[in-house]
Each structure stands twice: as structure tokens, then as C-alpha cells.
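User: Run a structure prediction on this.
Assistant: Running it now.
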Amino acid sequence: MKIFDFKLLKELISYLKDHLKIFILAVIASVLLGIFSTSRPLLIQHAFDNYILFDNSSGFLNIIILIFVCILFESGLQFYFIFQSNFLAQTIIKKIRVRIFSKLINFPVSFFDKSPTGQLITRVISDIEAISSVFSQGLLVVFGDTFKMILVVICMFFISWQLALISLICLPILIISTSIFQKYMKKAFIDVRKYISKINVFVFENIIGMSIIQLFAKEQVVFEKFKILNSHHRDSHIKTVLYFSIFLPIVDVCSAIAMGLIVWYGSINIITVNTISVGDMIAFILLINMLYRPLRSIADKFNVLQMGIVASSRVFEIINTSVTVDEITDFKTIKTISNGKISFENVKFYYKKNENVLNGLSFDIEKNKTLAIVGPTGSGKTTIINLFMRWYQIQSGSIKIDEINIENYDTTELRKNIGVVLQDSFFLSDTLMNNIKFYRKIDDNTVYKAVKKIGLESFINKFPDKYNYMIGERGAGLSVGEKQLISFLRTYITDPSYLILDEATSSMDPQTEILIQKSIKKLTQNRTSIIIAHRLSTIMNVNKIIVLENGRVTESGSHDELIQNKGKYADYFYQQFID
């Protein structure tokens, strides 16, 4: 394992190019901080050797004023450095977060099938926050401390090369200790990030499915699993604490040894040959603290860098992933899409290799006609919709609109022209009106007219605040049927060229179903439509019905024709009629 991944660090630093001015100013502030900090021991040395030992109070007062001025400058520079480094960090992670979210919303649905939602949330929030520390507490601080250490060493040799060599006698031990320390710390940090991600995934999934957990009385089982994950996360953190607990005392011991040797050697020198002054010894005591304290800080900040690098590897893994539908295909895009004939020609598709869902599927939907698709669970009904929406890529065959392959159409424009009502709908934690509009710039009157046209006024009026009724997270406060009616209205307002109803009436009570059937007749007028339904009462009047089995069309025709054929469709119909 690499102790430090410079390739990822280089990729992070590339984000600085648009903020070089802020970065350079922060670097200058860091350099000046180092200069003012190291000047204080030199001033104190000068005060002892030239003023204090000779009772020169006026000269000593001048030195005190200079030290006070240095401290003032240091304070101002410290404030400026902290502000600029944090401002730079937040500006950069804002850009990274926008970039990763922009990437996520353009990934095909197949990407989210393989990526746990909680894991993606960790990437966008927690991991990016860890990256911010690379800029606010990592790079610039490490640079400043390193520069200060170089200045301190130069000052030491300037004052006394003998004392300087004694001061650095423990440095090889610290370098070896730091190298070992960083190696083990990286392993611990990787575990910390891994278990944070696992906890996020676990909590998200179980909160979403809390009703099912309580239904089966599995609260204690879930709680025990959470405790195990949380324990692993704690153990990973404790490892980092353990390594720090070993490393930091080593630094302190080395510092104490160096200081003791300075006092021992300096005292003997003053008594015997007197080539070292009292001021020199005091300056070295101060400089040793300034040398070893940044070493501790650098080790700490180096770990911050490592945690940021570990987090960035997970973030850039998503940013550098190129699996969007438009990137997979290499066709020219056509942006004008008209209402026309839909054709599936010998389409073969699988979600998992060697497990075909569609096996050479072929059928046509004529312009402004309605096609209904029925069949047992797993026959490929919803897959047809997924492929028509270009959420997935087919393995072979073609899907066409007006004899043009849909891969030639611009994906965004294609989906804008398709209205879909699914079984499970997405809801905003917002008003009923905003859920109907769903981010679109539509005035209220357009919504009122649409509601009146398809006969849903009574449905809207039953809510306490009507259009201002607040819907909870994930549609809390609405029945399943009400959710589907709102989704139906949301789709109708878009006035799409093509309409898809994916079992949109499967969870409705008879009264709501009658209401929606009347709306469907209006909505499918002058529109090419596909209806997937288990309730065959909703598709008796469509133009054409196809029956799917094992990804193939086994029957095709109108309702009356299929009843007369006494095949699978007739069996489905009579079973529902008897029920």
C-alpha cells in the first residue's frame, strides 16, 4: 500500500488553478508568519546578551516593543491565513460537490442499481467535507510549518553550529517514527471512511424500510446489526487514537532529550571555554520548541491530508466514471421529436449477463394509438418502458420512432416528450401545487385548467388547504391511490407526445379507478400511448393488446379478439372477473 497517493493529491491541487490569487496570498501570509515567529527567539537572545546582562533598560525596552510588534503582526497574519485557507477550501469543495452531483443526475438508472444510495450520500456530503480539510488544514498548514522548520534550522546554525547539531540529534528517530506512523494511520483512516459509508447505507435503508422492520418485529435484530457496525467504526477511530498516543510522546521525548542536551552542553561550555552565551541557550530552548512542535503539527496535518486523499479517491471514482447513456453511444443527436409510430424490432436485453429479460421482442404502436401490455410478473413489461426511456442500453435489435433509432435522438429531448406515470412516484416535501408543477415554470392557472379538464377538482378540493396542502417526505399523508393521481396530473400538464402508464391503477380503490379511467380516455387522445396494467378493466377499449411471456409476444389483438382466442389473455380476464 502506498503511504501517500501523490496522483490524487495532484488532482486535488488542479482545482486551485481558478483560485491562484487566494492561494498565493495565503502562502505569503504563511511565509511571513514563519519569519515573524522565528524572529522572536533571535530578539530575546539579543536582549539577554546585550541589554539584560548589562542592565541596559532602554535597549531592553526597545526589544520588548519589537517583540510586541511581531506578536501583533503574527496575530493579524494568523487571522488572515485561517480565513483565506478556509475560504479557499469551501470554494473548492463547492465546485467539487456541484461537479459530482451534476455527474450523478446524468448517470443512467443502471448505475444506481449497483450503487447503494447511502454510499452515494456519503460521497456527496461526508467525503467532500473531508476533502475540504486538505485545503483548510492540510496543504497550506504543512507548507507553513515546513517553511518555519527550515527557518528555525537556519537560525540555529546561524547562532551556534554545535548547539544546532545537538538539537537535530533526535531528528533521524523522528523521521523513521513518522514514516511508520503514517503507514499505519492510512490503514486506519481507510477503515474509518469505509465504516462511515456502511453506517450511512445501513441507516438510510432501514429508515426507508422502517414500516416493514416494525411489521415483522425485527427492531432488535436491526439494532444489533447497527451496534456491530458502530463498534467497527469506533474500533477504527480508536486505532488512530492509539497510533497518536504512541507517536506524540515520542516527539515530546525527543524534544526533551534535545533540550536536556542543550542545557548540559551549553552549561559546560559557559563554565569552561565560554564560547556560548546565555542568550544563545535561551534562544535554542525556544527554537527547539518551535522545531519539534511543527513536527507534531505536520504529523497531525499529514493525517488530515491522508484522510482527505482517501475521501477524494472515493469522490473522484464517481467523477471520473463515464457511464452516461450519451457517452456510451456514438450517434449524432436529433432534437426535434414528433408524435409518431413506435417500433420494437427484435430487441434483446438483460440486466445480468446470460439472464435475458427480452428475447427478440418485436411489436409496433401506430401513431396516436394506445397499446396495452399484459403478462405475468417478470415477463418484461416494465423493461420495455425502461428501454424506451433509454434508462438502459439494449444488447441487440432496435427501438424506433418514425423509423429513426431512438439512440439518434437527444436523450433529454426524448424524455421531455414522454409522460410516465409509475407505480412508485417521487414526491417533494412541499405543497400539493409544487408537487404537481415539479420544478417546472408553470403558472397556477395552467394547473387549474388541467385539473378541471380531466375531472380531478373533487380530488383536489378534499384536501384541507387544497393546492396549499403540505405533503410530507416521500408523500407522507397521502394514500397510494392519491399519490398516483397526483403523478397522473403531473404527467398530464407536460402535454407529452407519448404517454406511458406503468400499472398506474394497480393500487387504487374502485371509485378512484373510475375517476382515472375517465381521465385516461382524455389523456390518450391524439397521443401515442402504452399502458401496462394488471387490472384488465382499464384496457378493454385500447386499440391493441399484447401478451408477454418470457420476453416474447405470445398474443396480440384487440380485447374482443383475444377473448375469442381463449388464450392467456382470456384466462387472465376471466380470473379477474370471477375475483
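The beta strands are 342-352, 355-365, 370-374, 396-401, 404-405, 418-421, 498-502, 528-532, 544-549, 552-557.
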